[in-house]
Design a protein that fits this description.
Helices cover about 20% and strands about 45% of the residues. The protein is α+β, with helices and mostly antiparallel strands.
């Protein structure tokens, strides 16, 4: 009879262990918090780092209904898609991270919904063409990062979309 109990408990322990592992690796922590609230008495960034938080943190504006941001973390680091919205509900930013480093395309928008910046990142550094526009959609700057070096013109010359530069180089 003792052998029977041992045989019955080994499969049971295996099932419990397997089920626990499935739950551990499939569940994701989700926290929803108002923009000025604290988590366990800490600001969000401090909470994430100290607790090596993995999951998604969604913040709302003080009205508790309008989304402000949705950010994904893995072991206390930014990892995945981060989105933000203006109080009027229009998208504010869309960034990608991997182990706290910026990767891929990053976008920012003005409050009126027009595109503000379009940047590209590789291993946490700007890479490729980078652009920014003013609230009216006129190009403010455009430059290229290649192998960690910046090429192109940035500054007040391009505040009008580069029209003066093109006119003076005929």
């Amino acid at each position: 009879m003792d052998r029977l109990m041992v045989a019955d408990t080994i499969p049971t322990k295996f099932v419990i262990l397997f089920s626990s592992l499935v739950v551990l690796f499939s569940c994701q922590n989700k926290i929803i918090i108002a923009e000025n609230d604290l988590i366990d008495g800490m600001e969000i960034s401090r909470y994430v780092r100290i607790n090596e938080f993995s999951g998604i943190i969604t913040t709302t504006y003080s009205d508790d209904t309008t989304l402000k941001s949705k950010r994904k973390y893995k072991k206390g680091k930014k990892d995945g898609h981060h989105q933000g919205w203006w109080e009027n509900g229009k998208e504010k930013y869309s960034f990608q991270f991997k182990s706290d480093m910026s990767v891929g395309e990053h976008f920012q928008w003005h409050q009126n919904g027009s595109l503000f910046t379009h940047k590209q990142f590789k291993n946490g550094l700007e890479d490729g063409e980078q652009k920014a526009w003013d609230v009216n959609g006129d190009l403010m700057y455009k430059y290229i990062y290649n192998d960690g070096r910046k090429y192109g013109i940035q500054g007040s010359v391009l505040c009008n979309g580069g029209k003066d530069l093109a006119d003076n180089n005929d």
